[in-house]
Structure formats: C-alpha cells, structure tokens
Design goal:
By secondary structure, the chain is α+β, with helices and mostly antiparallel strands. Helices cover 31% and strands 24% of the residues. Strands 1, 2, 3, 4 and 5 form a 5-stranded antiparallel beta sheet that branches. It is globular, with a radius of gyration of 21 Å.
Length: 161
C-alpha cells in the first residue's frame, strides 16, 4: 500500500517543485523602492532608490530615472527625520500625458537631479540573476513641480484657493 501511495504522490511532488514561472522584478518596468534619507536642502528630497537589476553593474542613469519617477508618481515615505511627501501626480494618465512623460524620461528628467552621492551605492544579491542596487539621489522637487505645472501635468498649488 505504501508503495502505491508513494508512486501516486511522488510525481505530484516533482511537478510542484519544477521550474518556476515567476517573473523577476528586474524584468519589470519601474521596479524600485524608495527610502527617505532625511531632510535635504530647501526644495529637494534626499532619497535612496533601490532598483532591481540583472547584474551588479546597473547604470546610474537608471537610478536617476527611478528617483524622479518616484517623486512624481509614488511620493517619498517618512523616515530619518523627514515627513512623508505625497506624489506630485496622482490619477490615471491620458494618452497625451503618457506621451509627455515618455518624452520627459528620455532626457528631461536629468535637469532635476541635484546629485548622486559618491560612494553611496549598495549592492545586494536577491536571486540567481537579480540584484537590488541602492543609490542616494537628491531630487529638486521645487523645480520639478514648477516644470510640471507649466506643462499642465499637475495642478498649481494656488489653484485650490
């Protein structure tokens, strides 16, 4: 009886432990986490961006894009003495707004990066071919807000009064 039970359960066990169809976070667009690094200079956010990448040599440009994307669409959580900051842009995007942001993230985003702290990179191996890479980035949120207001991507602060 035990032999038949083993022959019945063993194939199910092998099948369930087979190759995973899990998609790696490194393959997902905008795959990052945001961590506040405290209060930056007036009008800036000092944040650590944790991005997933296929190898340990992620370009710093990816961290810069992710940092600006986080300020615009996700916001910055509280931490290290800084209060939580909401996202600049909320809600669904229209096709015209999507096109605007696609063009924005080709090169315009670079104007709103104040600095990337030298020596701030941290690399953690999270899987077989996956790394979690952290950079400390300073984003000029006041300039970014003004640019997005001028292009009608977000409402002006004075529009609510």
């Amino acid at each position: 009886m035990k032999k038949y039970l083993f022959l019945l359960i063993f194939p199910l066990l092998v099948w369930s432990c087979g190759p995973s169809s899990k998609v790696s976070r490194a393959d997902q667009p905008w795959s990052y986490e945001v961590e506040s690094m405290g209060v930056g200079a007036d009008g800036t956010y000092a944040i650590r961006i944790w991005s997933w990448w296929r190898n340990a040599n992620m370009p710093v440009e990816t961290a810069k894009k992710n940092a600006v994307h986080a300020v615009i669409f996700r916001g910055v959580p509280a931490g290290n003495g800084a209060a939580a900051q909401p996202a600049l842009r909320t809600g669904a995007l229209t096709p015209a707004e999507t096109a605007f942001f696609d063009n924005f993230f080709l090169s315009e985003y670079q104007r709103y990066i104040n600095s990337v702290a030298s020596g701030s990179i941290q690399v953690l191996k999270t899987g077989r071919n996956e790394y979690k890479i952290g950079y400390v980035v300073s984003v000029s949120k006041d300039s970014l807000r003004k640019y997005l207001e001028d292009n009608n991507m977000i409402k002006k602060l004075s529009s609510g009064f």
